[in-house]
Amino acid sequence: MTRAARALAVAVLLAAAAPARADGYLESSYRLGTLISLTWEAAVPLLDMRSYVDEVSLRGGQLELRFGVARHLSLGVATSWNWFAQNFAQKSISYPGATVTAAVYDRAQFITLMGIGHWYLIDGPLQPFVGLGAGGVWTSTFESVADLTVTSSSFDFAARADAGALFTVGPGLAVIVSARYQFTMAKLRGVENAQWMGANLGLAVY
Known about the structure:
This protein is mostly beta strands and about 210 residues long. The chain has 1 helix and 8 strands. The relative contact order is 0.21.
């Protein structure tokens, strides 16, 4: 066997022994699959929502179902849950006809359901993406001030924008990391439009 033939044989053996690269999501227009992701979310209240609660919430998450409709493009649905809570040793709260200064316990829960779309910028095991979504949010609040308790609930319009990346770690399995801006028309005490920014980390299968 010549030196060139031996080198070719070694190269073939090495190629056969090397693990195949795991394809990213929607790399081919001939394989338009479905992606399901579940993430944990930490959220930071924004703008006037900080007058109701201003602490970071670690209680939140998202479930997404994305359907490939073209190469690099998916459409789907998403639902999310966020819980914001904060206790104040003393705070002044204004109500119609009176201002109360006392210990305050504020709680707000948000559950969204939205249609979503995402665009995947490149192929490969690391795929940055950007997305938009719109739908509705169910909001419930609880506020306790001294011996007064006020609760409310509503259903309102919601919209979101997000950006992140899929990191494929095996066939059909990826780590997903993203940042989400969530806008709602939900109104809390002193809050015209509740909104927050969330950081997400989780797993996706496709």
